[in-house]
Amino acid sequence: MTPVESTPSTVMPPRPLELLVVWMKAASQAIGGGGSGVLTAYNTMVASRSWLSAESWSECWAICQIVPGVNIMAMALLTGSRLAGWPGALASLGGLVGPSLVATLLITILYSRVQGSHLVQSGLHGLMAAAAAGSIMFSWRLASPAIRANLTRGRLVFSVGVVIVVTSAVLVRTTQVPVFVMLLTGGGAMGLTLWVDDYRGRKAEK
Amino acid sequence: MTDPILYFWLVLKASLLSSGGQGNLPSLHQDFTARGWATDGQFAAALAVGQVAPGPGGLWVVAIGYLVAGLPGAGMAALAVILPPFLVIPVGRIHRRIGSAPAVRGFVRGIVLVVAATVPVVFLRILASYGLDLRTASLVVACIGLHLTRRVPVIVVIALGSLAGLLLFR
């Protein structure tokens, strides 16, 4: 891995310790989701210290959307690796995850001590309603760029996307079909559809 | 939890085939509840912890790990959720070559659509374990309204939801 490939030549690349601190600060701002944490990291790394250009940041973010798992963790790893190699990647991830992991564990332990309380269960009921609303918004924001992109590709691609969404929702509600089977089938179907659509487009051009 | 290897594999598999912090919820919920390892109530608690704890929302998996199998469960869950994002480094290297291929873009898009379709269904199913009555439904709708304004931070919506819960479900 080649470090500092994305840092503008006039700027001193960050040391791993600096990256650790930046991502620790980002984690402290990321309550209720990673969005505000990413914004905090952007403000420091791009806007304030110019370690990365806005273009490099956007490219990293786009790549993070296609890898599995938690996007903000991938972002810390990728930007850290580009700025300071493996030490930078590990320091960034450590800053993001380390203190948060301890906080999560402490809150869970605290919860397990008071879970029998009716008051706690009432608060949790309300919190879950708010979290369910957040999950609906999360899903909409996740799916809407894909749905818009499908719309621009014509009826076939759009229809396959709709079938994937409806079938997945019905299957997860009413059957025990393994979710990973749905994911692989949905991914495979959409991949094949886009490939066929692209092939037909190129053939028509010829 | 009787089989640590199976447990680790189930969490890793759910994270490997997911996108975003809660994308692994449908798979984990299905695998853990089918084996009797966790209840809807424990999932609700873990998701709640993930909402109020600082850091990546994906760390809710650590909370369910603790509730299911104590500290070893939390440790293994943390490892299983941290490992998949490491794929970003090799993917970052080959992205320029294959990232724009229609089949690759389509595969990722299909996974995103499945995740987006299944996460709310599972969330609502867990919420239903508390009782899905008119008050709960109204609270969900009110919170969606707050999100739609884009002016209220997520943590404030969560705090207001909890407060409303204390008042409505006493």
Strand content of chain B: under 5%
Radius of gyration of chain A: 21 Å
- Number of distinct beta strands of chain A: 0
The two chains with the largest interface, and their residue counts, are: A-B, 102 and 105 residues
Order of helices and strands of chain A: HHHHHHH
User: What structural class should be given to the helix and strand makeup of chain A?
Assistant: mainly alpha
Instruction: Please describe the biggest sheet of chain A, giving its number of strands, its sense, and whether it closes into a barrel.
Output: none
Shape of chain A: flat
Helical fraction of chain A: over 70%
Quaternary structure of the protein = heterodimer
**Given the C-alpha coordinates, what overall shape of chain B results?**
globular
Low-confidence region ranges of chain A: none
Query: Average pLDDT value of chain A?
Result: 87
Please provide the count of β strands of chain B.
Answer: 0
Main β-sheet of chain B, in a few words?
Answer: none
- Low-confidence spans of chain B: pLDDT under 50, at least 5 residues? none
Average pLDDT confidence of chain B is: 89
| Share in β-strands of chain A | under 5%
Rg of chain B, nearest Å: 18 Å
State the distance separating the first and last CA atoms of chain A.
Answer: 41 Å
What structural category arises from helix and sheet content of chain B?
Answer: mainly alpha
Topology:
The complex is a heterodimer of chains A (206) and B (170).
Chain A: H1 16-29, H2 35-48, H3 54-65, H4 71-114, H5 118-152, H6 155-174, H7 179-205
Helix pairs in contact in A: 1-2, 1-4, 3-4, 5-6, 6-7
Chain B: H1 4-16, H2 25-34, H3 40-52, H4 60-82, H5 88-98, H6 102-128, H7 134-149, H8 154-168
Helix pairs in contact in B: 1-2, 1-4, 3-4, 3-6, 7-8
